[in-house]
Design a protein that fits this description.
It is a single chain. Strands 3-2-1-4-5 form a five-stranded mixed β-sheet. The protein is globular. It has helices spanning about 15-30, 50-70, 90-95, 100-105, 125-145, 155-165, 230-240, 255-265, and strands at about 185-190, 195-205, 205-210, 225-230, 250-255. It is about 40% helix and about 10% strand. It contains eight helices and five strands, in the order H-H-H-H-H-H-E-E-E-E-H-E-H. Mean pLDDT is about 95; it is low at about 1-10. The longest helix is centred in the N-terminal third of the chain and has 21 residues, at about 50-70. By secondary structure, it is α+β, with helices and mostly antiparallel strands. Strand 1 (about 185-190) and strand 2 form a beta hairpin. Helix 1 (about 15-30) packs antiparallel against helix 3 (about 90-95), helix 2 (about 50-70) packs parallel to helix 4 and helix 6 (about 155-165) packs parallel to helix 7 (about 230-240). The chain folds into two domains: about 15-150, dinb family like domain (Four Helix Bundle (Hemerythrin (Met), subunit A)), CATH 1.20.120; about 155-265, Nonspecific Lipid-transfer Protein, Chain A (2-Layer Sandwich).
Amino acid sequence: MDSTNRAGHPLPYETYVEAIARETLRFAEAVDGADPTSAVPSCPGWTLADLARHVGGLQRWFCALLTGLVQEPPRSRDVELGLPDSPAAYPGWVAAGVPEVAAVLRNTDPGAPMWTWGADPHARFWARRMLFETLVHRVDAERAVGREPDIGRAAAADGVDEFLVNLPHAGLFAPGVRELRGDGETIAFRCADSGEEWRVRLAPDGLSPLPPADGGAARPGPCTAAVHGRAADLLLLLYGRMSREDPAFDVTGETALLDHWFAHTAF
């Protein structure tokens, strides 16, 4: 992604459409020809076949939601998948969905009101969510087949923002998030390669992201704990693909607070 990102400001909608197609094809290419029964270490209990089915199936479900501009929480995730009989054919099936996904996204008004589980009740939520669902699983797949993944800085920074903005609403399927309460403690995630910073506050009634400083720069004033690292590493940290103890991160403040955070934010 070449678009400039500011913390708290999603990238242009067309950027998501193009990036979803690119990430999906990268995912399919990574798993193509690999043993579908191979384990995916970052998704315990899953094989590459499970991962491919998840990525392709979830994209098709998101497309069904967008096509119908659903206004209420769906009662089922059942959609027509057209899943091949052989798991060896799953990579091609994932890639074959790219034109339809792009068409659905381009034919949908990003500002159309609709049901979402996150902070933004508009169609654009699903494009942003689909990108990072696909991107993180592309990283899972590449690591599973022995490749070293890369993530562009702008995409990674936007992914950090998307995760933190929507996390307070994730209790629907990640009940641990509801345990993230406190007495006003703040955690900062600081981006070493752009200067951006995101802060969250843990209050008695739950967690909330704090508005970014102008331009996404570091906010003045102390925080209870902070993690400083490259945008790509911060994204993988938030998704549980890296540990705060990794030397890629500079951690300051109350580590017990960070342990509490990471124990309750997985989804």
